[in-house]
Specification:
Residues 2-181 form the 3-hydroxyacyl-CoA dehydrogenase NAD binding domain. This is 3-hydroxyacyl-CoA dehydrogenase. By secondary structure, this protein is of the alpha/beta class. The chain has helices at residues 10-21, 33-52, 58-66, 74-78, 92-103, 121-125, 159-171, 187-203, 209-219, 226-233, 235-249, 257-264, and strands spanning 2-6, 25-29, 68-71, 83-86, 111-114, 134-139, 148-153, 175-180, 278-280, 283-286. An 8-stranded mixed beta sheet has the order 3-2-1-4-5-6-7-8, with helices on both faces. A two-stranded antiparallel ribbon has the order 9-10. Strand 9 (278-280) and strand 10 form a beta hairpin. The longest helix has 20 residues, at 33-52.
Length: 294
């Protein structure tokens, strides 16, 4: 199968990697060559880490890289694709514009998927002339490690599109969970609800971020606490999702002030070096001074 991934960022290059590892020919596209190169470098780094841990053989790494290519041309990326997965930023109009342009370039039987984590897939697909060919494929970060993909069934999604997408997900060694197109789907809605309550607890001085996270990791067997996860995903992304869910579902998703202040200050988590934790080289090294807002 020929797979096209639009976006070479954290999610995009992760999706491209797992598709190529499963034997698909993959083209990854972004708007600037530097972004494409960064994405390809990240994939190679992930694979080298897998080799070092005996999770990936050198031959598997080489074969995966051989099946990957990058481009800044949308037409070159999608023209022969059987499946196009958009992983562009979480902006409704950008996603609608992207899928509409994709549809003008692909074959009639190509499936178009959105990797949105919370936006309405039905609304995104309404930009298509044939929206029945589309659906949501919500991957989780880090894609090459996390085993879940939410298959989001929009109002327009056909049975054949759903069957195709489910088979693809299972073929890349992921577990497919079918969900309806409700705000936040299942995972984002539950995950954000837990994360926002953890932020409120820090804001109210109930416990430090490290203690909240440790409680969830050891008490509930979560692999990562909700505040560390928020930092890893990006606090700006968390804020955008909360504002969308508040608009759609009500005040229980109102963003807490501590989150708004951090985003306004540019303290977005791992990618900026500070959020609920201080980060260096991708690792937590401490807590910021303002983290306990008593």
């Amino acid at each position: 199968m020929q797979v096209s991934v639009l976006g070479a960022g954290t999610m995009g290059h992760g999706i491209a990697q797992v598709a190529a590892m499963a034997g698909h020919e993959v083209t990854m596209r972004d708007i600037e060559a530097a972004y494409v190169d960064d994405g390809l470098d990240a994939i190679e780094s992930n694979l080298r880490g897998g080799v070092d841990r005996d999770k990936v053989t050198p031959d598997e790494m080489a074969a995966t890289l051989d099946r990957l290519s990058g481009t800044t041309s949308l037409e070159a990326a999608v023209t022969d694709a059987d499946l196009v997965v958009e992983a562009v930023p979480e902006d409704m109009e950008l996603k609608r514009e992207t899928v509409a342009e994709v549809e003008s370039l692909v074959d009639d039987d190509a499936v178009i998927a959105s990797n949105t984590s919370s936006l309405s897939v039905t609304q995104i697909l309404s930009a298509l002339e044939r929206p029945e060919r589309g659906l949501g494929l919500h991957f989780f970060n880090p894609v090459h490690i996390m085993g879940l993909v939410e298959v989001v069934v929009a109002e327009q999604t056909s049975e054949s599109t759903l069957a195709f997408a489910t088979e693809f997900v299972e073929g890349i060694d992921k577990t497919a969970v079918e969900v309806g197109d409700s705000p936040g789907f299942a995972s984002s809605r539950l995950g954000v609800a837990l994360g926002v309550e953890a932020m409120r607890m820090v804001q109210e001085g109930v416990a430090s971020p490290a203690d909240v996270d440790t409680a969830m990791e050891l008490g509930y067997n979560h692999p990562m606490g909700p505040l560390e996860l928020g930092d890893a995903v990006g606090l700006d992304v968390r804020l955008d999702i909360l504002e969308y869910l508040r608009e759609e579902l009500g005040e229980r998703f109102r963003p807490p002030q501590i989150l708004k202040r951090k985003v306004r200050a540019g303290k977005l988590g791992k990618k900026t070096g500070e959020g609920f934790y201080v980060w260096e080289d991708g690792e937590i090294v401490g807590a910021p001074e303002d983290v306990m807002d008593r």
